[in-house]
Structures are given as C-alpha cells and as structure tokens.
Amino acid sequence: MKNIKKVLVIAAASALTFGTVVSCTQGFEELNENPNNPESPLTYGVFNYANRVVTDGTRNSFESARVTLPWMQYSAQTAYNDEDKYAYRSTSGDAIWRQLNIAASNYKKIIDMNSDPETAPGASAYGSNANQIAASRVMLSYVYLNLADTFGDIPYYSYGNSDPDFQALNVNQFIKPKFASQEKVYTDILKELKEASEMIEMNEPVFVPADGLFGGDPAKLKKFANSLRLRVATRVKSAVPSAQAHITDAIASGVMTSNADNVGVKYEANLTNPSPMYNDFRTRSDFSVSKTLIDLLKGNTGNFGLDPRLFRYAAPNDVSKASILNGSYADTTDPSKFIGMPYGLPEDFQASQAAVGNNFFSKYVYRTDYTEILMEYSEVEFLLSEANGWNQTNYQNGVKASMLKWGVTAAVADAFVATLPPASAATVLTQKYVALFMQPQEAWAEYRRTGYPDTSILILPGETAPLLVPIPVTGETTYTFTPLVTGLTDIPARMLYPTLIQTLNPENYASASAAIGGDKMNTKLIWDN
Predict the structure, then answer these.
(1) What angle is formed at CA 373 by the lines to CA 229 and CA 128, rounded to 5 degrees?
(2) Which residues, in sequence order, are CB contacts of 163 under 8 Å at separation 6+?
(3) pLDDT tens across 228-273, in order?
C-alpha cells in the first residue's frame, strides 16, 4: 500500500501548491485520513477535488472574466480594459493549461487506483471500479476537449489507446511529452466517451458517499457522456471523418432530456467555499454585462424581442454592490434599468460610459452557491436542432430549458417561445449563445465553428459603434473597436502556448507550433470555419 500513500500525498501536495483549489467540498478534506481503513484511497475525494480544480482554475475573474467572457461580449470591463481588446495576459493561458492538467492527473490517479489489482478492492468501497473509471474517462475527455479547443495540438493521455503520440501524464517515462495532433485528440476523445458510456454499470453507484457531479447516479453520468460526445462530434464534423457516425450513435445511446440532467460544480452557501466569481466580486468591481448582450436581450439587435433572461443575467444599474452580494435587491422588469457597458472602448472613454451603462452581473450569478455548468440540457436541444436540420421543436425546447434553469416562470417562457422566429442556423445558434451565458469557453468555440452570433450583434475589430453619451470636451458620439494585438481582424482563434512549455519543452513546442501553422492568436484550429 505504499503506492497509495504516495498518490495521496501527491494529490494533497498539489492542492497545497495551488492555493484556492484546496478548499474542496465533499470528500477532499478527508483525502489523507480514513479512520476505518487508512490504507484505502478516498477516490471520491480525489474526484471532487479535481472537478473543483477545473472550475476554480477556469471560471474566475482572470481566466474567464478577462479572456473568453469579454471576448464573447457577455461582459465588458469598466476600467483597464486592455484584455477586452485582446491584449494577451500570458498568465491566464498558463493558468488554464496548468489547472486543467492538474485535474487530468487526478482523474488518471482514480483510474490507476481502480485498475491496479492491489488497490482496486479498496477503491471499490467508494463506488464500482468500472463506474469510477468511466467517470474519470469522461472528465478526462472534458479536460482535454477544453485544452485542444483552446490551444490546438496538445500533450494528450488516453486510457484506452496506446498511441505513441499520447505521452501526457506518463511523467516517469516522458518528461517532455510530444504534442498529439488535433485530429488524433478529437478522434480519441470521441472513442473514449463512447467506451466510457458503454462500460457504466447501471445498477451500481458512481462515487459514494459524496459525488458532486452526478450524485452517484450512473444514469446521469451516461447521459453526460453521450451529450458531451454529441458536442464534440458536432464541433469536429467538418474535420474528423468518424464524427457524423458519433452524432448518430450518441443520440441513440441517450442524451440529456431535462434540466435535472444538467452537470456542474456547485459551490457552498458560505464564504469558505464560495463560487470563484462571487469571491472575486467581494473585492473587485471590474465587470459589467456588456451592451452587446443587453442590446440582444432587449431586442435592440437580433429579431427575438425582449428576453426575460435579461432580468436574471444582469443587475439593474441603480442597485448597490452590497445588495447584489447579499441578494437583497428587488427584481425588476423595467428594461430602462439595463443598458450595459460598450465593449472595446478606448481607455479614456471608459469613465464617462461606465457612469451610465454599468450593469453588474445579477444576484443569480454572484451567489456563493452558484453552480458552474459543465454541460446542460438546453445545449443538447440546440445540438439536436442542428443535427435534425434546424428543427423547430428542439430549438424551442432549448430556449425554454434555458429560461427555466435561470428561474423564468413557465408561463413567461412559453409566451417568449411562442414568438420565436423560425429555426435556422442564425436563430438557433444565436439563441444557443444566449443560453451559454457564463459558459464563455463553449460559446467561444461555437463562434469559431459557426460564425454566430454574427456582426449584426457582435462588434468586431475595425467596426464603429455608438457611445452611450458624448465624450466630455470632444463631444464624440461613436468609437471604433481597435484591438491591441496586430493582425487580429476577428475574435482570437486560440490562446498562446504557455511560456513554461516554451522553456521546458522547446523541441516539442517548436514542432507543435509548426504543425498548427504558428503559435499565434489568429491561427485557426482544424474545425474553425
């Protein structure tokens, strides 16, 4: 059992090394101590810890709110908005890479614990060995999907494929892993998700006594695996030959069918383990919901009319920060209280516009026990609409599911859905963008794949837009969105490889950079149309 002790010490050391991710709920606090059997690995604690690493490290005010959240114009900074104009903060890319790979190493630890004949019997006390392996394979797929979508070619590990290019996580053998091609990575993710779904034991729990993602329910895990496979296959259907077959098979195998199937990391209703964005908002006031999104929700752009999610996404512009933090402000349905911060302003224009258009995120976003969604039912309905030739019923189901998840009443949701314009690529994918609010990484990937929302909604580099009020002294009434990165004429196509990789793994970094067409923010991934 010495190896188990070593694994647990490494996991605990990882937590201590990366600060805020230590405070994991549901089991990690017990990781090094099991009074009934100190030699047994507490795999559910490792799993819940790894899930928190994913969201703690990617859904905060730096790695999300200064990168993809503004890039997709869900938000706009009220001051110091260089990142909104694509000025690249290398620490954000480094942190995303580091945190996702820490999570991956922990999912692999669970697989190893449940695969090794010496440790598998002890691990089975916390769920069936097969289900723990399946859940870890699914989450590894989720992690590597995000890494590949963000960077392109990446070091990759596969449970079920011994391809010599898959060298990540085998640290004792490969200190400087090769980067696997995007086509290989996406192809294997699809295979892993299919095999993981098929190995689930439906009469056995996933993790016990605490499973923060699936509640121990194998049916929920299976639906997530198939739904995630549908997401991946749809993304790469123009670039990976097997993707279309996976779309058909994933749907047939059973995807999410209601909001009860949504999968996310739920934080605690306290200040010990609060959600990352809430915790950051306690000391910072950098972010407004953008005018881009508020104009769409008010019906000023697009062709959907006034969307009741406006009043759930944004706080009115006349409420205090304290009332948002404690959830005490009164809800309103007065659209005039929602204006939004213009996106991509020249820095010296910001103060005058923020005085008028600053709408903080709502009390439904800034809450201690917010759930960071990994995938939800509404997205599945939009994927089904696309798979079924832009099907109207799936489209309507997706919009209604999103509204209900955000607390819009069924009657109000039904009334809005009844007015939706007919399903098409433009309408379905724009409504998908609205539903992906606070899931900016996925919205960014969908924009790159599809081009929606289009320029009738988003403001892109070189375009001119109106100001909320004239600029004092000069009287200017418009501004031009000018990015701070040379050569960008659109939303960035990828993030740069981490600086540490460039230093420690220079040969493989150079090969990967050449293979993708250059380590640049405008280098397109294989599915980027």
Answers:
(1) 60
(2) 180, 184, 188
(3) 999 999 999 999 999 999 999 999 999 999 999 999 999 999 999 9
Is residue 434 a contact partner of residue 461, using CB atoms and an 8 Å limit?
no
H, E, C per residue of 407-426: CCCHHHHHHHHCCCCCCCHH
- The single residue listed with the structure tokens 């999104």 is 293
**Nearest to 122, CA basis, from 134, 135, 108, 110:** 110
**326-370 tens-digit pLDDT:** 999 999 999 999 999 999 999 999 999 999 999 999 999 999 999
Q: DSSP assignment of 111-148, as one string?
A: HHHHHSTTTHHHHGGGS-HHHHHHHHHHHHHHHHHHHH
pTM of the full structure: 0.93
Residue 508: HSE in the Cβ half-sphere, 13 Å Cα cutoff: 21
Distances (CA, A) of 321 to 167, 174, 315: 47, 49, 9
Is 344 in contact with 481 (CB distance < 8 Å)?
yes
- 519/523 Cα distance (integer angstroms): 7
What b-and-e string marks burial along 236-265, b requiring 16 or more CB atoms within 10 Å of the CB? Answer: bbebbebbeebbebbbebebbeeeebbbbb
CA 307/CA 132 separation, integer angstroms: 41
Coil vs helix vs strand at 464 = strand
Phi and psi (nearest 5°) for 497?
-60, 145
